[in-house]
Specification:
The chain is built from seven helices and no strands. With 184 residues, the protein is an all-alpha fold. α4 runs antiparallel to α5.
C-alpha cells in the first residue's frame, strides 16, 4: 500500500506515540530518582559541602519533570519520522543516553560515587549532543526539544564537579543514622 498519510493522520500518529513515550520517560525518570533516594531528604547529600549555586530541592523536581516531558516528546517525534534516514540511529542514541541518565541518580545518590557520576554525566552530555546532531537530520523540532536538557546536563555536570572538588571524601562519607534519645 503506497498511500500517503494526511496531515491529520500524521498528527494523530504523533499524539499516540507521545501518549506512550512522555509518561514512560517521566515515570522511569521519577522511579530512578525515587529508588536512588535522590534529593535533599538524602542525609548523605545533605551532609555534603555543596556549591552556592545549588538550587533548592523543588527546582530539581520541577526542571526534571519538564525535561522528561520534552524528552518524551522528542522521542515521539523521532519515532514518528517514518522514512527519515537517520531515524533509527537517532532513536538508538536517544535510548542509550536515556538509560545512562537513569543510572546517574543511583550512582550518585545511592552509591555515593561522585567521581564516577561526574564521568557518567559528561558521557551523557556528549551523547545528548550527538543525539541532537542526528535529530537535526530527522526532525528539527525533536532536536530543539533536547537543547534545554543538554544545557541542564552541563549545569548539573558543573555542580557534580564542584561537589567532587569540595568533598574529596564523599565516596567514604558515612552519615550517622538518625536516632532519637528519649530519656525516662
Amino acid at each position: 500500500m503506497n498511500e500517503l498519510a494526511s496531515r491529520g493522520q500524521l498528527w494523530m500518529a504523533l499524539l499516540r506515540r507521545a501518549l506512550f513515550t512522555v509518561p514512560l520517560v517521566v515515570v522511569l525518570g521519577f522511579l530512578s530518582g525515587r529508588m536512588a533516594g535522590s534529593g535533599w531528604d538524602n542525609r548523605w547529600f545533605a551532609a555534603l559541602d555543596k556549591p552556592d549555586l545549588v538550587p533548592p530541592g523543588w527546582v530539581f523536581g520541577l526542571v526534571w519533570t519538564i525535561l522528561y516531558i520534552m524528552m518524551g516528546l522528542s522521542l515521539a517525534m523521532a519515532l514518528n519520522a517514518r522514512g527519515a534516514k537517520w531515524r533509527w540511529p537517532a532513536v538508538a542514541l536517544f535510548l542509550v543516553q536515556f538509560v545512562l541518565n537513569l543510572v546517574w541518580s543511583p550512582l550518585f545518590f545511592a552509591q555515593h560515587q561522585v567521581s564516577a557520576a561526574l564521568i557518567l554525566i559528561v558521557v551523557i552530555a556528549v551523547l545528548v549532543a550527538a543525539t541532537i546532531g542526528l535529530l537535526l537530520r530527522v526532525r528539527t523540532a525533536a532536536a530543539l526539544l533536547l537543547v534545554p536538557y543538554l544545557l541542564w546536563l552541563c549545569f548539573a555536570a558543573w555542580l557534580n564537579f564542584d561537589i567532587d572538588r569540595k568533598n574529596p571524601d564523599a565516596e567514604t562519607l558515612v552519615v550517622p543514622a538518625v536516632r532519637a534519645d528519649i530519656a525516662f
